[in-house]
Structures are given as structure tokens and as C-alpha cells.
């Protein structure tokens, strides 16, 4: 299994921004070109093998969170200088303290709800680097830690502002240490979708929101007021997160009727993730209450029980969630019915 370089901002969005020629967006376009080159170079060269973990680790009793925040100081050498260790006081630097709090919220969801001991199931220290690069337009998981840029200031604000972004990127680590979904084609879109699902759940759990109260937005707060958009993605209504003169319109499909066949972005991993994203939202909406309860438990079971092959398709994953719902709640349960109906709505065969 290979460890993917997983970033929050889709390459198609960076590419659109990089092509802007308007003087007022010159610095943002330059920042986007650099971020895009960074993403493409890592995706092309990434070949480090990850040590997979058996599903039995789900039964390990969670330990206390152990966080470390580093400051790259505008450079690109990781991890940078240590600025806040577990139990240390707030620093007053928003990026540092937001990263610290977001890592804690993520650990809390997995420990409290799913009984998981950190990202790897074995108490992995949660490390993050802030202030990475100059005006860096992205945040990413590199297989061992989180990295956050400060944004260009014109289109993107600092990437620690969104708890769903922090939860999303750390969920790539959970996938890495469980199902090991390949980062290409439908398996890659599932990899991205699972991260959106758990990123949303981290945010909802931290704010004690029900499915009805939640915004179901990934990356809310990342855009500056200059952008006509709410977030990078909408799980509730894929394709509606932004519609902007500079960034264009959110291209995510909400069902297989609009599935995008492309060789870009590893086969459209950030675009087509909208389809399974909407399926999860529909399950949460149908069941009501807190989405981390029944819906979250079903998705977590499907991801971590050892049944998914690395190259799982949407259909394979959908069937895994249907089986998980039956195993957890019964074949005749409302949970089982809700999962089947959701996949039917987004036109994924089960």
C-alpha cells in the first residue's frame, strides 16, 4: 500500500485560480501555481509504504491525546520548531492554537464515539505544522502529520480556521491505517469522501450539532469575503459550495448521472467524492439526531472491519455499508433501510 499525499484544496480549483490574470489576484494566482506544483510533484513521486493495522485495533482502549504543534516559519522544512506540546498553554498565535484545538476535537470523536486510540489505533502522537510556506494555499496529510498553510489572503484565509479541514486530513490517516483505500479513481473518491464524512462529524461533535443543525460544509471559513462561496464542498448539496467569477462553479456531481470521467486529479478523486458524500448526508438526514451515532458507526464499521479492498468501487463500498447497517442494527432496521435508500438516490447500485 502506498501513502498518498492528501490535500484539502482540489487541484482543479487551484488550476483555475492559477490562470487568473487580473492584477488584484496576481499574488493569489502565484500562490495557487506554487501550491498546484507542490501537489502534483508529491502525487507523482509518492511511493512510501505504510504499515497497515489490523481491524482488531478497533478494540484497543483509547488513551489520552498527545499533540505537538510545530512552526515552519514560512519555510517548507518539516516539522519546524516546536511551539506547543500536549498540556501546554495557548500561545496567542491563532494558527497554532486552532491546530491544537482541532487535533483535540478529532481525537475526542474517535475515542468517545468509536473507541479508537488516535489515528492509527495505537495512540499515534498527533503532530501538526503551521505557517508552512509563503502564502501557501493548502493543508495536507503527508502520511505522518498534518501541515497547514496560511493562505494567500485574497482568496484563501489560514487553513486552521476550519475544524472540518483538520478532521478531514486526519481521517486520511485513519483510512491509511485501516482500509488503505487507493488514492485513484472511485477508491480515491471514496478516500476523499470518507475524510469529508469524518471531518464533518468532528465539527458536529465539537459543536454538539444534530444532523438538522449542521451546515454539512467542508472548509467553511476558508474563503475570504472576496469569494462568492461558502466552502470547498457541500455534502448536503454537492455542486453548490461556491459560484464565483474567479474560482468558477463548484463542479461536484450529486449522483452517478453526472459522474465525471477524467484522468486529472488521480481520476477525479475530489470531484466524484460528492456522490458518496451525499449518500452519507441522506442517511443522516433520514435517521435524524446526531450523525456520529448510527450513520457514523455504520461508515466507521465499513471502513475498519477489514472487508474493503484497496481498489473498492462505489458499489463495493455501498454494499459494505449496507452489510454494516445490518450487522449493527438488523436486517429489518430503519438504519438498514436508510442506507439502501441513500445509495439508490445517488444512483449507486447495491
Report on this model:
- With 350 residues, this protein is of the alpha+beta class.
- It is 41% helix and 9% strand.
- The chain is built from ten helices and ten strands.
- It has helices at residues 11-18, 26-45, 94-114, 163-176, 185-207, 265-268, 274-287, 294-304, 314-329, 334-345, and strands at residues 6-7, 67-71, 81-85, 126-130, 139-141, 146-148, 217-218, 233-234, 243-244, 248-249.
- Strands 1-5-6-4-2-3 form a six-stranded mixed β-sheet, covered by helices on one side. Strands 7-8 form a two-stranded antiparallel sheet. Strands 9-10 form a two-stranded antiparallel sheet.
- Helix 1 runs antiparallel to helix 2 and helix 7 (274-287) packs across helix 8.
- The protein is globular.
For this entry, give a set of tags.
single chain; two-stranded antiparallel sheet; 41% helix; alpha+beta; Elastase, domain 1; 350 residues; 10 helices; Neutral Protease, domain 2; six-stranded mixed sheet
Summarize the structure.
The chain is of the alpha+beta class.
Mind summarizing the main beta sheet?
Answer: 6 strands, mixed
**Radius of gyration from CA coordinates:** 19 Å
Would you tell me the overall average pLDDT?
93
| Architecture per CATH nomenclature, i.e. the level-2 architecture of the largest domain | Roll
Q: Quick one: CATH class of the largest domain?
A: Alpha Beta
Low-confidence stretches: 45-56
- Total count of strands: 10
Helical proportion, percent range: 40-55%
Distance between the termini: 26 Å
Structural class: alpha+beta
Shape: globular
Remind me, CATH topology of the largest domain? Answer: Elastase, domain 1
What is the overall number of helices?
10
The overall number of domains is 2
Oligomeric nature of the chains: single chain
Strand order of the largest sheet: 1-5-6-4-2-3
Strand content: 5-15%
How do the SSEs run, as a string of H and E?
Answer: EHHEEHEEEHHEEEEHHHHH
